[in-house]
């Protein structure tokens, strides 16, 4: 595997599901802020333990947190590519990554809208 392909692979590997040892992805745990997204507001202690939430609500919150984390990482890569400061040369063209970010952003919006309508307490 060439260095260029290996570097792209390593970055994309980081965008997959988080390693349990690296990031706490329990409901209520927010991903590390990346700078592209607003910093998450601290959740009240009552929500951190998630008492009284239905299993579907817990799954929705987990899905939202994971998607938000991946979106922020992708956004960071796109910004670095546009600025010419990316420390690797992705195999995917920039416009494909931008299209992926748009789709992910729309999905985040759908989850946020559902959460608002269904009174699901999202961490951000």
Could you please describe the fold and organization of this structure?
This protein is mostly helical. The protein has one domain. The chain is built from four helices and no strands. The protein has helices spanning 3-14, 45-48, 55-83, 94-118. α3 (55-83) packs antiparallel against α4 (94-118). The longest helix has 29 residues, at 55-83. The termini are far apart.
Task: List its traits.
0% strand; elongated; 4 helices; 124 residues; mainly alpha
Detail the topology: elements first, then pairings.
Layout: H1 3-14, H2 45-48, H3 55-83, H4 94-118
Helix pairs in contact: 3-4
Q: Helical segment tally?
A: 4
Largest sheet: none
Alpha carbon gyration radius: 16 Å
Relative strand content: under 5%
- The percentage helix is 55-70%
Q: Whole-number average pLDDT? A: 75
Secondary structure category: mainly alpha
Global morphology: elongated
Order of helices and strands: HHHH
Q: Count of DSSP E strands?
A: 0
Q: Identify low-pLDDT runs.
A: 15-33, 40-49
User: What is the number of independent domains?
Assistant: 1
Terminal-residue CA separation = 39 Å
């Amino acid at each position: 595997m060439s260095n260029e392909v290996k570097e792209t692979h390593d970055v994309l590997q980081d965008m997959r599901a988080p390693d349990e040892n690296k990031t706490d992805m329990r409901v209520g745990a927010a991903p590390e802020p990346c700078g592209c997204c607003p910093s998450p507001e601290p959740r009240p202690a009552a929500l951190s333990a998630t008492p009284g939430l239905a299993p579907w609500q817990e799954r929705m919150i987990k899905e939202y947190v994971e998607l938000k984390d991946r979106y922020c990482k992708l956004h960071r890569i796109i910004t670095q590519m546009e600025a010419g400061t990316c420390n690797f040369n992705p195999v995917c063209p920039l416009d494909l990554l931008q299209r992926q970010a748009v789709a992910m952003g729309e999905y985040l919006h759908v989850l946020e809208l559902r959460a608002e309508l269904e009174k699901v307490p999202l961490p951000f």
